[in-house]
Amino acid sequence: MTPHRPLACVILAAGKGTRMKSDLPKVLHRVAGQPMVGHVLSAVRALDPDHVVVVVGPGMDNVADAVAPYPTAVQHEQRGTADAVRAAFGLLEGFDGDVVVLYGDTPLVTPDTLRAMVAARRQPSDPAVVVLGMRPDDPGAYGRLILNARGGLEKIVEYLDASEEERQVTLCNAGLMAFDGARMFDLISRIGNSNAKSEYYLTDVVQIARSNGMACAVVEAAPAEVVGVNSRAELSEVEKLIQRRLRKAAMDNGATLTDPDSVTFCVDTRLGRDVIVGPHVVFGPGVVVADRVEIKAFSHLEQVRVDSGAQVGPYARLRPGAEIGPDAHIGNFVEIKNAKIEAGAKVNHLTYIGDARVGAKANIGAGTITCNYDGYAKSHTDIGAGAFIGSNTALVAPVRVGDGAIVGAGSVVTTDVEGDALVVARGRQQAYTGWAKRFRERKQNEKAKKA
């Protein structure tokens, strides 16, 4: 059995992101409902590393909070990527396993790619450094990875420093690296800053390693996986890429998306088998949908659970705390918040149910609202199994409607209703024969006198 070799991951997240023009640190901007650095941490966790260190800038307490319980190291001055890795040295003192260096603004990297980098680092050729490469359609100004005759990495050449022959190389630097920890500290400590920006560039480590007879290697990834974010426009492009990935995964796992490009997922959205999702549906964070559910067009769900066989929408809004039971129906222009809709219940149109329970097979008529807020506190409405709530009813919480009870349309219910009772809580209807005709005649006469 191969002995366990320790693994550490260092995530560089100290960038100010000035091009984002935001008070929020760049790595906390969200992609598919999760901060970018959270995506990177998710990929890292899949490798089960022994250590994770996130490098932040001064005053980035909100980043430290977002990555907790992982420790953070502070890069006190923005002096380049090698300087950022050096900031993590104190938390990795004495570590001699493998170290993967990632970027908090590159949220699409996958665990498989990271595993490939670690595997390459552990090959018999024993490279001191493994660099992640890519072959974009337009290599443009990317640094080029120059290989030697044996296929090993010989050097990284920045575009401005590359010869015409080197610029023809299509293998480009994607930025991520894996190191032999036993050699990393010395190699990075020897990186200088004799360049136009007086910064310490991590890419210089390859030249230092090769000049000391150490092997270096390359692992390739799809260009879409290593897109970095430096602006709002790039953030939107990454959002498009991850949505494409999430839509494909949903369909591969047995869901039908009738118009995939219009559906928006969060990274934690969970759909069961034979789920049908209509156009322009938005899944916010924390949504779990069981098997055989249909979610119709223009619905919005966030922090909810929908059980098997239920129907939702179109134009439904399910807010945090909504629990939709098996075979329940939530119809058009219905809003559910912090409420449990039990099996087979129907809330079919133009209704607000908040802080409530709707019992099994109850029917909620159009225009019903639970009046759950008095300006100071929220109160609960309980609607029993099999109850029938007539259209345009206001249920003033706290209030309970018993099993099988019927509430007449247009009622304002302020006290509990017994099971199997009928309650009508509205003004008595009165008719005044001929009044409407006399009213019109009077108005017409008044208009004629003014003419």
Automatic annotation (TrEMBL):
Enzyme class: transferase
Catalytic activity: N-acetyl-alpha-D-glucosamine 1-phosphate + UTP + H(+) = UDP-N-acetyl-alpha-D-glucosamine + diphosphate; alpha-D-glucosamine 1-phosphate + acetyl-CoA = N-acetyl-alpha-D-glucosamine 1-phosphate + CoA + H(+)
Active site: H349
Compartments (UniProt record): Cytoplasm
Binding site for Mg(2+): D105, N230
Taxonomic source organism: Azospirillum brasilense
Pathway field: Nucleotide-sugar biosynthesis; UDP-N-acetyl-alpha-D-glucosamine biosynthesis; UDP-N-acetyl-alpha-D-glucosamine from N-acetyl-alpha-D-glucosamine 1-phosphate: step 1/1; Bacterial outer membrane biogenesis; LPS lipid A biosynthesis; Nucleotide-sugar biosynthesis; UDP-N-acetyl-alpha-D-glucosamine biosynthesis; N-acetyl-alpha-D-glucosamine 1-phosphate from alpha-D-glucosamine 6-phosphate (route II): step 2/2
GO cellular component: cytoplasm; membrane
Domain of life where this protein originates: Bacteria
Lineage: Bacteria, Pseudomonadati, Pseudomonadota, Alphaproteobacteria, Rhodospirillales
Membership in a protein family: In the N-terminal section; belongs to the N-acetylglucosamine-1-phosphate uridyltransferase family. In the C-terminal section; belongs to the transferase hexapeptide repeat family.
Binding site for UDP-N-acetyl-alpha-D-glucosamine: 12-15, 26, 75, 80-81, 103-105, 143, 158, 173, 230, 319, 337, 352, 363
InterPro entries recorded: Bifunctional_GlmU, GlmU-like, GlmU_C_LbH, Hexapep, Hexapep_transf_CS, MobA-like_NTP_Trfase, Nucleotide-diphossugar_trans, Trimer_LpxA-like_sf
Name of the molecule in the record: Bifunctional protein GlmU
Chain positions covered by the region annotation Pyrophosphorylase: 1-232
Residue ranges the record marks as coiled coil: none
Region (Linker): 233-253
Cofactor binding notes: Binds 1 Mg(2+) ion per subunit.
Molecular function, one GO term: glucosamine-1-phosphate N-acetyltransferase activity
Gene3D superfamilies: Hexapeptide repeat proteins (2.160.10.10), Spore Coat Polysaccharide Biosynthesis Protein SpsA, Chain A (3.90.550.10)
